[in-house]
């Protein structure tokens, strides 16, 4: 499956570059959606099927739709974005190079070495332990089952906190955007449905 | 999970009570009839304040002193109790300030109180967090509530700008935090602070490559926290945000998140990464220097009140970072003492700023402070004593806390920090005294002075309490010394 | 090599009857609506109008494709392609019998849900790239409606999944061997049907593409083959939703317990029968009820269906955990 991994990764990286380089902001959001889809493909290759689908449902189906709504309604004129990227090259390139070097230094280094070969050639003579995953020989759980068994029992605190964050987001969105004008007439559908026909017209004598 | 009802909920009783209280308030606010909205906010403020008082009592009377909760994700110890009580007291003071502010600014939304209570809950949970994931969740929880509160005045461009800037910078720094935390996790395999501390025992002078990669993660983490606590050189967002947000929310920003974030900083670096002391000490050394210098020099050119207060809070963060950089228990005690005194001084300063409201609106420019002696001599003397305390002039509270921190720095051989701290105190003296000159010695012109509106009883109470605190802590500081020492001892 | 050939044949065996089904679904809708309105539907082209879809298809192919001059061409042409493609790929997880499924995913339900979330993009891209205010407005409304009803769709699915114990379609059908889920979860069954109506933009929730009022909404600028693709995509989605509904609530390919004399019929027949029952319901509802106004539609989705389905999730999960009935 190396071919698929290479294809998804290459498409993902080029889409993410196109996100910042596209002239039209709607194109940027569409390329962002492409990035999410490619990442979802990579997750499937890693065996995390549940996360791949959740990526599609949450990121592509909700978050990117939100982005798309906002960008489409903002009506950004394309001519405003004409500026040369080259003048940022010295400082920006320098900082980018520093970041890249830092990540490269940190990558592929294990603090607790599980693979003795990576420490150096002198360790090759030692016997490398081989691990047998006994759990896998007995029963296999699906990804979603494994998550469910842990997230509601041991890590329930994280679940609670995530729900509080959603509560704050809901209250915040309403606070920032709701215009509760008392002068606007509204229909109260539950009241209308609760009306009794026999009492709607009464004789006033 | 197996201990959910035996010990986990017992330890989380204050937070649970606060949560239930604010849910009840939320329900009450939604079901209340429309049309009497100004009553609604004052009802919610009173009940919310009562909620906070009860939470404080539950916290103080909690029988559990040292505990790890929720399967190694939360911890209760002396420091968390101390900081949680400070956070609750500061939110209570903010509620006191809002009694007059909300009707005057015609803010009818009761969700203001709910969001403040939710932010307080998140700050309490942040102080107790023991794991990178719970830390990140609590930080996001708090930040989200505060982003919305900063942008509360929807028709004011300053407020919207403040909310937007705060959001962008907050999200950016959370991204750094996640990157650093994931680097650490990738290198060590655990996110728990205690496990990290145990894992790194005796690292010191080992192989540079394995150590270097951890230091990279540490760098990202510390940058993220320094962004959030608005230390220089990551302080650019705070003057704009402090200026644009509603004044009561600015007061909350200056006090409560800093309390919680210092708690977080102490827990991450003293518990998790203490063996990397020589790496992160340099980071905090540099940032503390920069914060003190930027805080004092940056404030010299300001013409608006809230921006001045923002720069002075950057300076105060610089002093607190001295305590963090020492790596000793005395430094920790110094930080806690300074946080306590900083809270009192900032409450006082913001109460005075909120009391200066004229019929046209609240004061924006420093020149609105002129001739305060003629308009209201009591407010003038209160503000001048607070400014003297912020400058560190004996025998006021600010001097006590700075004195303690400089001694801790000298004990840890951070001589340049102590010297520069004193020097920047002197420079900050300059602009504080220029404010006092404006209040007392400005030439009164022929145009009549705009009279300030009378302040309400809650603000008066806060002003009085904090004023007497600033004046008289120096005479009897031992309870505060004992409290901060007890808090610091949890790291011995 | 022969493996790929086998897969290709399976896909063809799935897609070709599906396209035929979509085509005749169009005819069925017109005939049934005509009967409800006491007239005959199309009966000119073949005997009983059987050849009408072929005539429609031929007409659409021969028509001139009009491309608006200021339209964003790539996205304009990509939108119907995306819609049609998504309508087809969701059929890969639907089981027509025991083992008769193209791809037996362990997360089949979530896959369907993800694909229907992606279906929103066809609409929004079509509306925006047409460079026309009405198309854009119709697209935004349609998208908002689809996203709102996906929420209640997901929550209702969660309740049924707690009963079933797995996201695998075959296992969901297997777990309905004793009793179909529509019997204990009858209110949820009704709500799911209505949410499917709203999700596929069918009457009475079709204000965003109301033919009389908004001139077909987001696909107003499309003609000929592009419009045909949208049309096919919409009806394909409709048939998919009906099949989904019959799998989740009416037991999929399980035979009817009452008519046990018909047990010799292949399992696909039962699935088709149940799906046809729902499709008839779709057409019946279209002919009977007036359209919901847009704000009433959104109110229904957020203020009625969401709290109800959420309450049902609480009830079902509480019941199952409390009595230890979890599968």
From TrEMBL, chain A:
Q: Has UniProt tagged this entry with the keyword Cell wall biogenesis/degradation?
A: no
**How does this protein lie in the membrane?**
Multi-pass membrane protein
Encoding gene per record: nad6
Catalytic activity of the protein: a ubiquinone + NADH + 5 H(+)(in) = a ubiquinol + NAD(+) + 4 H(+)(out)
One GO cellular component term of this record is: mitochondrial membrane
Where are the bilayer-spanning segments? 50-76, 88-107, 155-178
So what does this one do? Core subunit of the mitochondrial membrane respiratory chain NADH dehydrogenase (Complex I) which catalyzes electron transfer from NADH through the respiratory chain, using ubiquinone as an electron acceptor. Essential for the catalytic activity and assembly of complex I.
Please list the GO terms describing molecular function: NADH dehydrogenase (ubiquinone) activity
Q: Which InterPro entries match?
A: NADH_UbQ/plastoQ_OxRdtase_su6, Nuo/plastoQ_OxRdtase_6_NuoJ
Q: What is its main location?
A: mitochondrion
Q: Which UniProt keywords apply?
A: Electron transport, Membrane, Mitochondrion, NAD, Respiratory chain, Translocase, Transmembrane, Transmembrane helix, Transport, Ubiquinone
Q: Where in the cell is it found?
A: Mitochondrion membrane
- Could you tell me the EC number(s) of this protein? 7.1.1.2
Q: What name has this protein been given in UniProt?
A: NADH-ubiquinone oxidoreductase chain 6
Tell me the protein family, please.
Belongs to the complex I subunit 6 family.
From TrEMBL, chain B:
Q: Which domain of life is it from?
A: Eukaryota
Keyword Transmembrane: yes or no?
A: yes
* Any single GO CC term annotated in Swiss-Prot or TrEMBL for this entry: membrane
Which Gene Ontology BP terms does the record give? ATP synthesis coupled electron transport
Membrane topology type: Multi-pass membrane protein
Segments crossing the lipid bilayer: 12-33, 45-69, 81-102, 109-127, 133-152, 164-188, 208-227, 248-270, 282-301, 308-329, 335-356, 377-397, 403-433, 460-482
Chief location bin: membrane
Q: Which residues form the signal peptide?
A: none
Task: Supply the PANTHER family for this chain.
Answer: NADH DEHYDROGENASE
Q: What is this protein called?
A: NADH dehydrogenase subunit 2
Q: What is the lineage of its organism?
A: Eukaryota, Viridiplantae, Chlorophyta, Chloropicophyceae, Chloropicales
TrEMBL record, chain C:
> Whose protein is this, by species?
Chloropicon primus
Q: Which GO terms describe its biological process?
A: aerobic respiration
Any keyword Transmembrane helix? yes
Q: Which residues cross the membrane?
A: 6-28, 73-94, 106-126, 147-167, 179-198, 235-256, 268-289, 301-321
Where is this protein primarily located?
membrane
| Subcellular localization, as worded in the UniProt entry | Cell membrane; Membrane
Give the keywords, sorted: Membrane, Mitochondrion, NAD, Transmembrane, Transmembrane helix, Ubiquinone
A cellular component term (GO) from this record? Answer: plasma membrane
InterPro entries assigned to the protein according to its UniProt record, in alphabetical order: NADH_UbQ_OxRdtase_su1/FPO, NADH_UbQ_OxRdtase_su1_CS
Q: Could you tell me which NCBIfam families the record lists for this protein?
A: PRK06076.1-2, PRK06076.1-6
Q: What is this protein called?
A: NADH-ubiquinone oxidoreductase chain 1
Topology in the lipid bilayer is annotated as: Multi-pass membrane protein
Write out the GO MF terms.
Answer: NADH dehydrogenase (ubiquinone) activity; NADH dehydrogenase activity
User: What are its E.C. numbers?
Assistant: 7.1.1.2
The family line of this record is: Belongs to the complex I subunit 1 family.
Q: Which Pfam families match?
A: NADHdh (PF00146)
Q: Which reaction does it catalyse?
A: a ubiquinone + NADH + 5 H(+)(in) = a ubiquinol + NAD(+) + 4 H(+)(out)
